[in-house]
Amino acid sequence: MPSPTPTTSRPAATPAPTRGPTRITSVDITPVAFADPPLLNTVGVHEPFALRAIVQVHTDAGATGLGETYGDAAHLGRLRLAADAVLGADPFNINSLRALITHSLDGDTSRGGHGMSGMVTGSSTADRVLSAFDVAALDIQGRLLGVPVSDLLGGAVRPSVPFSGYLFYKWAGRPGAPADAWGEALDPEGVVEQARRMVRDYGFTALKLKGGVFPPDEEAAAIEALHSQFPRIALRIDPNGAWSVPTSVAVARRLESQLEYLEDPTTGLEAMAEVRRQTRLPLATNMCVVSFADIPPAIAAGSVDIVLSDHHFWGGLRRSQTLAGLAETFGLGLSMHSNSHLGISLAAMVHLAAATPNLDYACDTHWPWKDPADDVVAPGVLGFRDGAVAVPTGPGLGIELDHDALERLHRQYLDCGIRERDDTGYMRRVHPDYELKAPRW
Ligand SMILES: [Mg+2]
What we know:
alpha/beta, Enolase-like, domain 1, 2 domains, binds magnesium ion, TIM Barrel, globular, 3-stranded antiparallel sheet, 10-stranded mixed sheet, 15 strands
């Protein structure tokens, strides 16, 4: 019997590795602050400055990776623990970074500092810390290999990423100060006017209203006004769990034909499931499914249709793709949540969304609320066209740090005196009788 012919083809010789060992030599963590308008939500109002932390991971290979995350004091402390732990580690081995960072937080007893003003729990603290290092490591990898981060995540399936314009009820200006450039939005007319400007300036094809501020009837009327003015734009409302189950069901039924989805109408997996049984409207969340541990009970209870991913609290870009795989497995839709953020986060969001096929809802962004001059990223790469941001094509995240701007925004942090996000405390300084209530209606 002749021996079978091998069917596997092999190269004549194994190519030599082209990459030597790479080590993290130092990490800079720089808290920054940027001006934020008085945007209202169900726990208060945005303070005059939003906080972020900029993470620079330096290597012995000459590449520095960038990450951006929350800037609250307790989170900064955890970032510093993690920064010490990853010194000497290989930025190509994100599994090792994750183990080192998780271990570095073993003795951490600090609480809070998650930058979400109490609206999302701290159930995934290690993932929140890991995120900025994961993004920076992927930035380093891309820079050294000469490929964009979207390639490292499996390849872009879309050349640009659509975003949703984020509408807020807002005061005309800060108490005692003149009106800001956006002016007041405290009723349906104000919300429609704000939407008109966002659509005109950015071309958004989806709009989301932050609710939970006024009685649900008034907020439903704002959605109806938006629908009549922008019939082809996908609409969402997010009251951050401010409504009871009966209120949520009533609003869902009223807006069933006008919303793309209803986000966190009520609080908790069971209450969300109860609402979901009584409406055909898809329910979305970034409050009751915020970590991997939340997924099994959410599936068991039938709590939601859509999960809003957010690499800042799901452990970075690669773990956000793990979430995407679970969403695909269990038939959940995938959208993206945002907090006030700068350009490093926007670039990371765009690479992730571009390389995640089932992330096909327009992503949230607070971008229009930021003064364009307030950023740590050198201008020229990130911009909105027809409501979408083109995927950067340069190596890594495809953006560069503006060191002068970083220094200026750090100075702003030092001067502003804010060390953790506290929307409720700020509201009470303006309205001392302001009460937190859940559900509010
Ligand atoms: Mg939300």
